[in-house]
Amino acid sequence: MPITQSVKKRVRQAEKRRTHNKHYKSQMRGMVKKMLSTTSKDDAEEMYSQIVSVIDKVASKGIIHKNKAAREKRKITRHLNDLS
């Protein structure tokens, strides 16, 4: 167990940040999964801008790496272009 007050505080802060980051990562993954499961081009086009903005937001906050953000955006863009 932590001994000093500062270590106790760091543990509290780390847990708070972990749950906050987990929420945003989970939200992003769910949206990407939903996008990849759609077969309608109209629905996919509606979701696309929302998903890209969420991915950019998560990457700008440092929750995911910028290259992972680019990879996710590329994946959903490819899926959107493959729909016809």
Q: What brief labels describe this structure?
A:
84 residues, mainly alpha, Methane Monooxygenase Hydroxylase, Chain G, domain 1, 3 helices, 83% helix
Compile the SSE list and pairings:
Blueprint (H helix, E strand, L loop, with lengths): L4 H33 L3 H20 L5 H17 L2
Helix pairs in contact: 1-2, 2-3
Task: Describe it.
With 84 residues, this protein is mostly helical. The chain has a single domain, classed as Methane Monooxygenase Hydroxylase, Chain G, domain 1 (Up-down Bundle), CATH 1.20.58. Helix content is 83%, strand content 0%. The chain has helices at residues 5-37, 41-60, 66-82. The protein starts with a helix and ends with a helix. 8% of the residues are buried.
